[in-house]
Write a structure and sequence with these properties.
Structural class: alpha+beta
Number of helices: 14
Shape: globular
Oligomer: single chain
Number of domains: 2
Distance between the termini: 34 Å
């Protein structure tokens, strides 16, 4: 299965503080609640009764018992084939994404805030993408620099003037969130191309209900099993010409792709065929699926491969993964592609800095979810600020993901900073910088016992005629002590995210 941190938006930055001791019975007897926002142990507001009940139940678990349940859960995940691939590790290509059995819990009020903020952000992104591929008002009005968009590597001239159904470009969106020292949710990055990891959300819940039924008993938790049907409905709603019996397929690069488990999982959850490029063909500007009964029309394609590989006639001529003629069929309005070609402009790390302005411009609203303060090193002011404060900032390359290529100033040596400074000066447009944030933590089962670890959150939004947000989303946890990077390829894991219904 894919590393859910392989999408843009996977790099955490936060300041480490000095822990203050706080003890409780049982499982938490050695737990130190640090001077961060601990989402289970030191919330700023009185917790609801259901959260207190979860905390009390956890406190009475024994460490030995929890470890035993964790071993059984790990074996269960492996037997189910829920793994991801790390191509750079020849000794352990297929790995289980570690799942911590102490859930991350969000209250109904917290989720309501996140849900409204994600919907707002998705609406603004879809407005933005329509505009830049049509009238370009936001560019001529000077809200976003034209060069930042038109010179972006993810901008696709082939999309200019193409009227996508319902003006929906981003059918599936993953918004990476962190919480600061006051518990406020902040947007770290957007993922508007092919966000991965939703299968972990659903499988983690199934695993938790099997492994920790006594912890979940009697709790009113929001369910996560609607994702597949919701996604299929959205792709039917945005099919060409409003075809209500639209044939939807999931297009995968194939069995050797790191995300193949998720492709199989989602096709099954949606109840649609899983296909590869060789299973599809284009005739007279229409897409068909090869079947034993002959060609069958295809109306909506949920693609899990990048733009460059979709159509060898238009993009990479060496691609064996795509469908020759697909872009022609798309431009004729005979097929929907989700997410649309060219959506990568909207989740670019530099464009991200302008998202608050984009929201105000199109929606005439203040952002519900704030950005992390961001400095664009391709601009003189941003570069000067970053160079002057390199030891205090998190600096990321705009084209990397998975936690690679970044530097966390407070944790870097002088030699590392100087080496990074040289690379930054050589190619400033490739970098952004952000302040180091006091990231929230959650109790996590570790080798030494239960300890605080930094977490982030990726809610998944599905858009058709309206936008629905999967309750909770993927909580990733930095399992290494002191680490701020949650990617599985960098030693991270995940938690089941429980949203209290009331």
């Amino acid at each position: 299965m894919s590393d859910p941190g392989n999408d843009p938006g996977s790099d955490l930055g936060g300041a480490l503080g000095q822990p203050r001791g706080q003890q409780g019975p049982g499982l938490f007897v050695t737990y130190d609640t640090p001077d961060f926002y601990c989402e289970l142990m030191n919330r700023r507001d009185p917790p609801p009764d259901s959260l207190t009940r979860i905390r009390d139940r956890l406190a009475h678990f024994g460490l030995t018992e929890l470890r035993q349940r964790a071993r059984v859960a790990e074996a269960d995940l492996y037997n189910l084939g829920i793994t991801f691939t790390v191509y750079t590790d020849r000794d352990a290509i297929d790995r289980i994404l570690p799942v911590d059995l102490i859930p991350r819990v969000l209250t109904a009020g917290e989720w309501n805030h996140v849900e409204r903020g994600v919907r707002q952000r998705v609406a603004a992104i879809n407005h933005f993408l329509w505009d830049i591929y049509h009238e370009r008002h936001i560019l001529t009005d000077g809200i976003v620099p034209a060069a930042l968009v038109l010179g972006n590597a993810n901008y696709r001239p082939e999309m200019e003037g193409l009227d996508v159904p319902g003006r929906v470009y981003v059918h599936i969106n993953g918004t990476d969130l962190v919480r600061d020292g006051a518990g406020n949710f902040l947007v770290l990055e957007d993922n508007a191309r092919t966000p991965s990891g939703v299968s972990y959300v659903i499988e983690n819940r199934h695993m938790m209900l099997r492994s920790m039924p006594d912890l979940a008993a009697g709790l009113d938790l929001m369910p996560v099993d609607e994702y597949g049907p919701r996604l299929r409905r959205a792709l039917t709603e945005t099919a060409p010409g409003g075809i209500r019996d639209a044939q939807v397929v999931l297009l995968s690069p194939g069995i050797y792709n790191s995300a193949y488990f998720e492709h199989v999982f989602l096709a099954r959850e949606m109840g649609v065929p899983l296909v590869e490029g060789r299973d599809l063909m284009v005739e007279n500007g229409r897409v068909f699926m090869r079947t034993v009964a002959g060609p069958r029309p295809v109306h909506s394609i949920y693609r899990r491969l990048n733009d460059d590989f979709l159509d060898p006639r238009v993009f990479n001529p060496d691609s064996m993964l795509g469908v020759p003629g697909l872009v022609e069929a798309y431009r004729r309005g005979n097929v929907t592609i989700a997410n649309a070609i060219g959506t990568g402009v909207a989740d670019d790390k530099a464009v991200y800095a302008y998202m608050p302005r984009i929201i105000r411009y199109y929606l005439n609203e203040e952002p519900i979810l704030s950005n992390v303060e961001t400095h664009i090193c391709g601009e003189p002011e941003g570069l000067a600020y970053t160079l002057a404060n390199l030891e205090r900032l998190v600096v990321k390359p705009v084209g990397e993901s998975g936690g690679y290529g970044l530097i966390i100033g407070p944790h870097a040596t002088k030699a590392e900073l100087e080496s990074f400074r040289a690379g930054l000066l050589a190619d400033p447009a490739n970098y952004i910088s952000q302040p180091v944030i006091d990231l929230s933590v959650s109790p996590t089962l570790c080798e030494a016992g239960v300890e605080a670890r930094h977490v982030d959150l990726r809610p998944f939004a599905v858009t058709g005629e309206s936008t629905w947000v999967l309750p909770g989303g993927l909580s990733r946890v930095a399992l290494r002590k002191g680490s701020l990077v949650v990617n599985s390829s960098q030693g991270g894991g995940s938690k089941d995210t429980w949203v209290l219904a009331s």
